[in-house]
Design goal:
Elements: H1 7-34, H2 39-47, H3 66-77, H4 81-101, H5 104-115, E1 120-124, E2 140-144, E3 147-158, E4 165-175, E5 178-185, E6 191-193, E7 207-218, E8 222-223, H6 229-265, E9 267-268, E10 271-272, H7 277-305, H8 311-335, H9 337-340, H10 346-354, H11 364-374
The structure holds flavin-adenine dinucleotide.
Flavin-adenine dinucleotide (FAD) binds next to helix 4, strand 1, strand 3 and helix 11.
């Protein structure tokens, strides 16, 4: 058994850490305050090959493994969750369906721009009436004169409306008991994108409502076989969970580091608060839980890289890191006292950014349902 990262994986971690500290950290608070999507940062990440880490080089990606990808997402979330979710949603949800289920023509058309980060893609699964029960999709697509005529709506869709966005892959009902995936290019008549939604956190990430009314999409934009959409989106979510779990570890790590550094500087009763054992115990618990969470994430990623079943481990990693990031960020803010409650402190942003890690890509309850199913319950 070897738990060391390879040289290549270490290099990815180092490269992303340097980029995050030099390019993202100085502007993270401002992007959050202004709720501004960081197009320039996304372009720079693309130039470094970080917008398509697990996409093969022949399609314009970096040809890296899932472990490297998880490390990169962790490092981004350690500094800025909005940037991390932009990369994670683009890679795991936007680009991956085309890589996994697209035909040669679709791969040639979309992947080079997406995997290189010149353009972004979104994944439109959730609807106002279909969240945890994503199979209850009401959006319909009807085949007429070699076009799919789409009617319906989607909600909370990440990366759908940025100036870099090329397309969204949506699930739609193509028959009574049949769900299929369709690629809808941005700018298609009948496809309307709302203004950015106002959120508790992830302020610099792009989240939109989508409306389709008699939106005609070429028949050739069907992804994979007709009727395979349900199985396809479950597979996409399994992989995506590893990246959201990595975000939980990264956010917790960032929050822990802020708390540790603050505890060393803040003096009360004539001494830095870090000398009080109650404070040390909190920091020790945080560090321990983060290590446990990181272990779950890397194991799920490693299993995926070995071509072995990983869905249960990915759900466990997502559940555990979602909840652990909540505990860690709450304790980390607590250690900042009143200063932590002020928007000028970085920990306040981390606190707001955390909650969605227990909601997106399946709530904690949904992860428990997935795990229970794998346990044969
Ligand atoms: C910022 C943000 C970005 C997102 N990005 C995307 C995206 O890019 N693409 C996309 O398709 N979706 C996206 N989502 C949607 C996200 O995946 C859903 O919000 C999530 O799956 C939950 O669905 P819901 O919000 O409808 O909640 P609901 O499903 O209505 O859940 C409400 C509550 O009921 C609980 N619940 C539901 N069913 C059960 C059950 N059977 N047993 C026990 N408890 C249950 C849930 O756990 C939850 O606590 C995003 C969401 C957010 C907030």
């Amino acid at each position: 058994m070897n738990l060391d990262l390879t040289e290549e994986q270490e290099l990815v971690r180092r490269t992303v850490r340097e980029f995050a500290e030099e390019r993202i950290a100085p502007v993270a608070a401002e992007l959050d305050r202004e709720a501004r999507f960081p197009s320039d940062i996304v372009r720079a990440l693309g130039e470094l090959g970080l917008m398509g880490i697990p996409i093969p080089e022949e399609h314009g990606g970096a040809g890296g493994d899932t472990v490297s990808y998880a490390l990169a997402i962790e490092e981004l979330a350690r500094v800025d969750s909005s940037v991390a979710i932009t990369v994670a949603a683009h890679t795991s949800l936007g680009t991956m369906p085309i890589l996994l289920f697209g035909n040669d023509g679709q791969k040639r058309e979309w992947l080079p721009d997406l995997a290189s980060g010149r353009r972004l893609a979104a994944f439109g699964l959730t609807e106002p009436g279909a969240g945890s029960d994503a199979g209850a999709t009401r959006t319909r697509a009807e085949l007429r004169d070699e076009s799919w005529i789409v009617n319906g709506s989607k909600i909370f869709i990440t990366n759908a409306g940025t100036d870099l966005t090329a397309c969204v892959t949506i699930t739609a009902r193509t028959g009574e008991d049949e769900i299929s995936n369709l690629i809808v290019p941005n700018g298609t008549p009948g496809y309307e994108i709302s203004a950015p939604m106002e959120k508790l956190g992830w302020h610099a990430s792009d989240t939109r409502e989508l409306a389709f009314s008699d939106c005609a999409v070429p028949e050739a934009n069907l992804l994979g076989p007709r009727g395979a959409g349900f199985r396809q989106f479950l597979e996409i979510l399994d992989g995506g969970r590893i990246s959201v779990a990595a975000m939980g570890v990264g956010l917790a790590q960032g929050a822990y580091e802020l708390a540790r550094s603050y505890a060393g500087e803040r003096e009360q009763f004539g001494r830095p608060i870090a000398v009080f054992q109650a404070v040390q115990f909190r920091l020790a618990d945080m560090a321990t839980e983060i290590e446990a969470g990181r272990g779950l994430v890397l194991r799920a990623a490693w299993l995926k890289d070995q071509g072995r079943p990983f869905a249960q481990e990915a759900a466990m990693a997502k559940l555990y890191t979602g909840e652990l990031s909540g505990r860690v960020v709450s304790e980390a803010l607590q250690l900042h006292g009143g200063y932590g409650y002020m928007e000028e402190s970085a920990i306040a942003r981390f606190y707001r950014d955390q909650k969605v890690l227990e909601i997106g890509e399946g709530t904690n309850d949904v992860q428990r349902m997935v795990i229970a199913r794998h346990l044969g319950l």
